Amino acid sequence: MKEKRKVTGQLGVYLQWPLLLSALIIIMNVAVGTIDTTAGLAMCGFTILYMIIAVFLYIYKKKGIMAGMIEFSAEYAWIQKKLLMSLHIPYAILDEVGHILWMNEQFVQIIKEEKGNIKTIQAMFPEITKEELLKMEEDVSLHSSFGERRYRIELKPVALEKGDISPDSGLKGVVTEDKSLITMYLFDETEILRLTQEVDDQKMVAGLIYLDNYEEALASVEEVRRSLLMALIDRKISKYINRMSGIVKKMEKDKYFFAIKQKYVEELRQQRFSILEEVKTVNIGNEMSVTLSIGLGMNGDTYSQNYELSRMAMDMALGRGGDQAVLKNGEKIEYFGGKSQQLEKTTRVKARVKAHALRELMETKDHLLIMGHKLGDIDSFGASVGIYRIATALNKKAHIVINDVTSSVRPMMERFLNNPDYPDDLFLTGDKAAEMVDANTILVVVDVNRPSITDAPELLHLAKTIVVLDHHRQSSEIITNAVLSYVEPYASSACEMVAEVLQYIADGIKVKPQEADAMYAGIVIDTNNFTNQAGVRTFEAAAYLRRSGADITRVRKMFREEMVDYKAKAEAVRLADVYQGLFAISVCPSEGIENPTIVAAQAANELLEIKGIKASVVMSRYNNTIYLSARSIDEVNVQVMMEKLGGGGHRTIAGAQLPEATIEEAKERVKKVIQEMIEKGEVS
């Protein structure tokens, strides 16, 4: 049965106008006949003749008109095909799964060398998968490369019926049923990207270099040779920057500013800022190696903004302990180095200055809230108690915010509950504390500087005056709205820092025995009985607390373990798997354990007692989250390791949390991070 074709639209109306005009002539004939019958009859003959001619022309000439229209359409389709074929933009038509049905000359030119091997678009651009094409309902734009050229690809779905395909299109035999086709345009952006890259390469990167231990290094060398030591360091830094066609200017005796082009940043990344290690080789008899901190800022809107980014990067490097480079690329932050243990500052000048600043802030407020981190440990609790003692000495009302009381904190906390020396509302939950925040409230955050893991993060948004005291290295996530920030990574614990502040903030503060016990316990736990990161000031703080009434035996008895916890720790040590011959990885059982994260941390410490183990990672499941406890002695920076897993901490003590992960997934992620650190030389 032949397919009937109809003429519709404006053209159909145009062809029917003689028939429509016949009706008007008939009406005219009737009007004339009404006026004069003879004239009407005469006109009637002409009307009939006109209608016969009109019908004849419409019926018998219609086929000829249609043939002319089809011939024009074919000519138009051929011209359209020719235009597409010679279109300067590469153009192709694909089926639903990516087979190339048709392509123009420009598209053929692109694949001419491999034309026989390319039947599907996936052979050119693997990013365009069959699954993506099948579910594509709207236009898609993506970027890819083929050969040495880079392209922007525009894909547009087109729904077609079988009758829509022209016999001369080349697709009639392919499209045998109603289906969707996909049109594809290629826009060569190789030159644009090259020029864009050239512009980016010419951008200025601002940088700062600080000598971490300037005073200590000079003190370790003979006085007559000190100028030579600084001259050698200056020469190394200048040579390093000049090698990248940059400029460097010494601002102070231990501070430098430099500027380089952005194209050299990738080279610095690849070399992992080799100047950090090169400067340590400067030795003219100095007992102490010089270490640097580097801060770089790039991709700011202005040069001054790049400088501000470099200052923020430097603050981050110093806050993490120095001997490292921090690159701040807009909001993105990258860390390099950080292998050395930061040396303890023997001077307490900074502690005294911070203590006086804290006192001035506290004197302007009537009410204090003291908060630690989630699942607070004894260091967090002891530091909170120390700040509480300062507040009461200054006649300020204070509360300690604790949501969840862990098994390690409970024995110490019970000494403050139902004690007539302390108010009943000494300890508050986060919700209760939030109701008390007003303009005269100061929030003191201890033992944590990451807002997401504070015990009540909402308080950080409610309180206008915030003070941070912490000993953990800073990460990219920090409490940004703190009025006073005292972060010292070399300190052994938050309790050590608070014990120093107590001695300077006011005269005659009397620390009660239970408070001294809590702070002393925090130092003992965080230093693993004074074996981990315990410096001169650590022992001085412990001696101060001992004089204040801390009882070593009482603290030891208070932290004896439950049998079930001890067995779990022993099981974690027994099940330890040694990875790469250097890293102990284990899992701490959590069934029947009140707080498996603490037991896991203890097991991680125990594993370091095994010869050949450079670092340990023990996992535990708690509240559908995998908690990682990482420990090392001196050869591995476990903070860097845990940061790669979204955590953080200290150089030798760190941790991370992996929500919704399984133990096996956590193990694989830890092993992958360790392998990356080994390949990058981050393991000594």
Summary of the model, kept short:
This protein is of the alpha/beta class.
Description of the molecule:
The chain has about 675 residues and is α/β, with parallel strands linked by helices. Helix content is about 40%, strand content about 20%. It has 25 helices and 23 strands. The strands form 4 sheets. It has a 6-stranded mixed sheet with strand order 7-8-6-9-10-11. Strand 10 (about 325-330) and strand 11 form a beta hairpin. Helix 14 (about 380-395) packs parallel to helix 18 (about 495-505) and helix 18 packs across helix 19. It is elongated, with a radius of gyration of 40 Å. It starts with 8 loop residues before the first helix and ends in a 5-residue tail after the last helix. Mean pLDDT is about 85; it is low at about 1-5 and about 170-175.
Task: Please tag this protein with its features.
684 residues; alpha/beta; 6-stranded mixed sheet; 6-stranded parallel sheet; 25 helices; 23 strands; 42% helix; disordered N terminus
Structural class: alpha/beta
Count of helical stretches: 25
For the largest sheet, list the strands in their spatial order: 7-8-6-9-10-11
Q: How can the largest sheet be summarized?
A: 6 strands, mixed
Poorly predicted spans: 1-5, 171-176
The coarse overall form would be elongated
Helix content: 40-55%
Number of strands: 23
What is the element layout, followed by pairings?
Elements: H1 9-15, H2 17-35, H3 37-60, H4 62-85, E1 91-94, E2 100-103, H5 105-110, H6 130-134, E3 140-146, E4 149-160, E5 179-188, H7 190-201, E6 204-211, H8 214-219, H9 226-242, E7 247-252, E8 255-261, H10 265-271, H11 275-278, E9 292-298, H12 303-319, E10 324-329, E11 332-337, H13 349-363, E12 367-371, H14 378-393, E13 397-401, H15 410-413, E14 427-428, H16 430-436, E15 441-446, H17 458-462, E16 465-470, E17 484-487, H18 494-505, H19 513-526, H20 536-547, H21 552-558, H22 563-574, E18 577-579, E19 583-587, H23 596-607, E20 615-622, E21 625-632, H24 638-643, E22 648-649, E23 653-659, H25 663-679
